Amino acid sequence: MAQLDTRAKLAILADAAKYDASCASSGTTRRTSKDGKGLGSTTGMGICHAYAPDGRCISLLKILLTNSCIFDCHYCINRKSSNVRRARFTPAEVVDLTLNFYRRNYIEGLFLSSGIIRSSNYTMEQLVEVARCLREDHDFRGYIHLKTIPDADPALVHQAGLHADRVSINVELPTVAGLTRLAPEKSAPRIEGAMLGMRSAIEDGADARKRYRSAPRFAPAGQSTQMIVGADAATDGDIIGRAAGLYDRFGLRRVYYSAFSPIPDASAVLPLQRPPLMREHRLYQSDWLMRFYAYRPDEVAQAVDPATGMLPLDIDPKLAWALRFRDRFPVDVNRAPREALLRVPGLGTKAVASILAARKWRRLRLEDVARLTVSLAKIRPFLVTADWRPVALTDKADLRAWLAPKTEQLELFAA
């Protein structure tokens, strides 16, 4: 490998990390260095946020330790047989970059992953050394997210949890068949075994903190995972079921979805085209329904097209579910329980909380509800208020077409 300076390595390894979506910094404990001790903070104070072209807010130094890898996963641009320029950081270089970027107010923390070099244990040792050095040698109190390696020694993975706020182990693909076909060197049982071990360690750590204030924190922001969407034949129904199982079995904070993107010199077994990015968006919306709107996984799965197993792209899953179960509507905003109000398309959790608080003092009218939503037309067929009843609107034969966003022809020379 040719000798590269730090700037050249950063260009290569930051670009190589863009395929990993699981880098949100939510859910950790609050730490600051306002007392003059240590360096960094997990809060957003004084942090400059940047936005990627796809709209994601980025405030972490997101890099790979190296994009070299001994594995040959078909869907990965950094696979062994891929013809890409390789680079590798030393742990000391990553530590220096993190500290320098933080002092310049570029970032609030570090997201670090890596290809597998030499062995899983060797790579995990390198990742842990970065986090250890930041925490112990430099008293860094900012956010650290480490991507762990399922095949590594459990003791090394445990060390990662002692230094990182969040750890993640990617399941890679929604189905075991897809993983076996596209990543034959990886094992679904080993991945799930590592996730189960991490859940136990997180729960043990939380229990120890309740008993002893001096007990070390262990991955206080929990663990997450990521699934690649569109690289195999898994339907949205399959993905929703898989995500629900992951939340239930492993106590995950987040499941991230990453739409498969064709890569240079792609394997012949991969699709030639990427799935629509809207498919990724609809999966995130279905994930929100399970996490914040009290939908059971089987209820979310009822929003998919029975023939294709896919979520509709033109309307969101919540509206798709409501259209399929029109007998549950309309809902009276002045009487219905919270669970029923959360099912109304167009009403979010904050809007429902405001409705429950306001109706204690007076009966709500349609104009009151309109102040809480961006689309009054979307909710009118599903609500009853003091001055509004949809009558036959809820049973309107073309209600879906009436509610679906209208497509507009753009003008080539419009101002």
TrEMBL record:
InterPro entries noted in UniProt: Aldolase_TIM, DNA_rSAM_put, Endo/Exo/Phosphatase_dom_1, rSAM, rSAM_sf, RuvA_2-like
Domain of life: Bacteria
Keywords: Iron, Iron-sulfur, Metal-binding, S-adenosyl-L-methionine
Cofactor: [4Fe-4S] cluster
One Gene Ontology term of the molecular function aspect: metal ion binding
PANTHER family xref list: ENDONUCLEASE/EXONUCLEASE/PHOSPHATASE FAMILY DOMAIN-CONTAINING PROTEIN 1, TYPE II SECRETION SYSTEM PROTEIN K
Annotated protein name in UniProt: Putative DNA modification/repair radical SAM protein
Native source species: Sphingomonas pokkalii
Taxonomic lineage of the native organism: Bacteria, Pseudomonadati, Pseudomonadota, Alphaproteobacteria, Sphingomonadales
